[in-house]
Amino acid sequence: MPPSFNLPFVLSVAGAFLTSSVVAYIYVWPAIRAMARHDALRLLAAFHAFRFLGMNFMVAGFVSSELSADFANQVGWGDLIAAGLALVSMAALSWRWSIAIPLVWIFNIWGTLDLLNAYYMGITKIQNPGLFGAGIYIPALYVPLLLVTHVLVFMILSGADSAEERR
What we know:
Distance between the termini: 53 Å
Radius of gyration: 17 Å
Shape: globular
Mean pLDDT: 92
Helix content: 55-70%
Largest sheet: none
Number of domains: 1
Number of helices: 5
């Protein structure tokens, strides 16, 4: 039997993706495209430095006690690792370490796969988004914002505008 889904929750997530994408296209991309590459990447990584918030899925009372502990642990620890990688990337970019760009690639690939895995696990293992409790804003609002910023980082890393043109 295919997993059931909660239409209002799905529409909320879809709306957050659409809105995040439109705002990124109209406001964020033109602004970061005008920045030096390291500065633009550092700014985008800063949004991910707050991913320690995913650890709250492991806090009793923040989410329902019925929420899968496996799901909560994977989401929490995956997000903490992503936050750490974002902070290291920000430091490397700030201090112009020679490994800064490879670190950003690692952070961005890990962070993207972690979020996609969390959505996949949520779709296949969590039948009731109400189990997220106070954390419902994370998959409904914060994750779409983060995924859109990951796309922007990939665009910069892949040279959507020539890195030399961007300084």
